[in-house]
Specification:
5-stranded mixed sheet; alpha/beta; Transcription Regulator spoIIAA; 16 strands; Rossmann fold; globular; 7-stranded mixed sheet
């Protein structure tokens, strides 16, 4: 694939753009030869670009992006070089709004495009959030690895009675609280708890039983969580904190672990939970190998 073809690809999607987030180019899915290191997102009038390893023709890439926005809705380009230490980001055209947020299905989430790594929003989880929004009415929800609490916003907008957000990062939880205010959500019944999940089970259990449980961990976070060995520790605790007909959304974004990894853990350690289905991934994030792409797995508890 060439830069001219990427430009053509971007322009072909132009008519679909509005103020909502859209991934315009998902090189990481492996569908575009030579550009697995590149992603391009539309965030209202901002074009957000990430390079995961060094681009030999970076100047030409930037020229192509400038040519694209000259005829698009965008007036700003932000480039993040994730292959460099600290993953620095810079505005190369225009200016960022002072209080930038992203829109998704009527929800709003604060965004930091100049952070040293993650922006505070994971767009590939869109279908997971929609599922939670549609299945949380009057429910007691547990949101593990909540990060900036996007699932909590979806649950509350879907009518959840309570939501317990658990994450080690106080900063992420603070942004999560702000996300609720941004969506005019009363945080009564919403908890923001800076716990180490694997070491705080007794405190988490006190707020149960939970009708909906979300497990959305990092694949690997040094000193905190490693999916290959720590996911099972969560699964084995599920029967102690789940209601009789609990819904579970178990997420996994490791290219090295497939659907069967989670299904087998639950079959072994929490057999009252039965596999229902895997949510479809957002088409914008299509992958050459869908078995290795994001896995959003739905389970439901059945007793007797």
């Amino acid at each position: 694939m060439t830069l001219d073809k990427i430009l053509h690809h971007l322009r072909a999607n132009e008519d679909e753009l509005n103020s909502e987030f859209k991934r315009l180019f998902h090189g990481r899915g492996g569908l575009y030869e030579g550009f697995k290191h590149l992603s391009i997102d539309s965030i209202d009038t901002v074009l957000s670009v990430a390079l995961y390893f060094e681009e030999d023709n970076e100047d030409k890439l930037i020229d192509m992006l400038k040519e694209y926005i000259s005829l698009s809705r965008h007036n700003t380009i932000v480039l993040q070089r994730r292959y460099l230490k600290g993953s620095p980001s810079e505005v190369i055209v225009g200016e960022l709004p002072e209080a930038l947020h992203v829109e998704e299905n009527g929800m709003k989430f604060k965004l930091n495009l100049l952070s040293n790594r993650n922006s505070g929003y994971f767009p590939d989880m869109k279908n997971g959030r929609e599922f939670i929004k549609n299945n949380s009415k009057d429910k007691n929800v547990l949101n593990l690895f909540s990060y900036t609490c996007a699932f909590s916003v979806a649950a509350k907008l879907g009518g959840a009675k309570t939501v317990s957000n658990i994450d080690m990062s106080k900063g992420a939880l603070s942004t999560g609280r702000a996300n609720h205010y941004l969506n005019n959500i009363d945080t009564k019944g919403v908890s923001f708890l800076p716990y180490n999940i694997l070491k705080s089970f007794s405190r988490i259990k006190k707020k149960g039983p939970y009708d909906v449980i979300i497990i959305d961990p990092p694949t690997f976070q040094r000193g905190s969580f490693e999916a290959t060995k720590d996911y099972r520790k969560l699964i084995m605790k599920l029967p102690q904190i789940a209601s009789d007909d609990c819904l579970l959304l178990a997420c996994l974004n490791s290219p090295d672990l497939d659907v069967e990894f989670v299904k087998e853990l639950i079959k072994e350690l929490a057999p009252s939970f039965k596999f229902i289905n895997r949510l479809k991934n957002v088409p914008d994030f299509a992958s050459l190998d869908e078995q290795k792409s994001l896995k959003n797995l739905i389970f439901k508890r059945f007793l007797n």
